[in-house]
Amino acid sequence: MLQLLDGLAAEIDANQIATCVYAIHDPNEGRLVYASAGHLPILVRDEDGTVQRADEPTGPPLGTGGWIHASGSIALPPGSTAVLYTDGLVERRDEDLDEGIAALERALSGATGTPQVVCDRLVRSAGVTPDHDDDVAVLVLQHPARKGAEAELFRNAALELLGGVEAAPRARAFASGVLTSWRFPAELHDLGVLATSELVANSLQHGTPPMRLRLRRTDRRLIIEVTDGDDHLPRRRRAEPGDESGRGIAIVATIASNWGSRRTPGGGKAVWCEFVLQKP
């Protein structure tokens, strides 16, 4: 993603550069995976108020051209809050930038409540007023700690795919058992098993070990994901009538609400699909 934006930035104005951070939250693993093009560090506050700072940027600013931006990660477990922000929030002409970030860390340590409440408190603590002389953007992300009946709506299960082609029937049986235990209706159960079968078959044919199947449900979605060690992302294509393969991704795209793929930190890829759940 950042490589594409880097090229776009150079095309727009070769004399300008811009910073950017792109992040994906994985609630199953409790981590925030990010790539940073010269951007300020992400801050994460855990439940007890301890604030951690993400590592240094994983690449130079956009518009510098020709660089490979690596990925980093930082823990974001249930009950924690992540903050992404621009330099207008922490940079002042009369003080060092690190002092501004440290002040933001202190403000975040005592900030609780909804994302909007946390955001408002951080902006006030930085002394930002309507006549502030720089643009300010703040994004607050929370991973809620869910309990009781609400927690039952947020479930996940995983299976390591071992043994070559023998992994396919095991994956289908695993998905069927999980979806049954989550009490999905028969139609969604069958679609989920079919999507699992096609994603696993695609990985077995085109991917490399290690391979893993993950199923996750939220209060709004069922997400099915397969990861493997090959970093070539799949594309949907039209199979000819005589082709014996090549329809898997097309089937997934047809039956699911959405699908996609991404490269994973350390190499490999994840291919996923999701089904939007009907409101009770």
UniProtKB/TrEMBL annotation:
Superkingdom field: Bacteria
Keyword terms: Hydrolase
Residues in Histidine kinase/HSP90-like ATPase domain copies: 166-268
Stored Pfam families: HATPase_c_2, SpoIIE
Residue span(s) of domain PPM-type phosphatase: 3-143
SUPFAM superfamilies in alphabetical order: ATPase domain of HSP90 chaperone/DNA topoisomerase II/histidine kinase (SSF55874), PP2C-like (SSF81606)
Single Gene Ontology MF annotation: phosphatase activity
InterPro entries: Bact_Sigma-Reg, HATPase_C_sf, HATPase_dom, PPM-type-like_dom_sf, PPM-type_phosphatase-like_dom
Name of the protein: Serine phosphatase RsbU, regulator of sigma subunit
Organism: Streptomyces lividans 1326
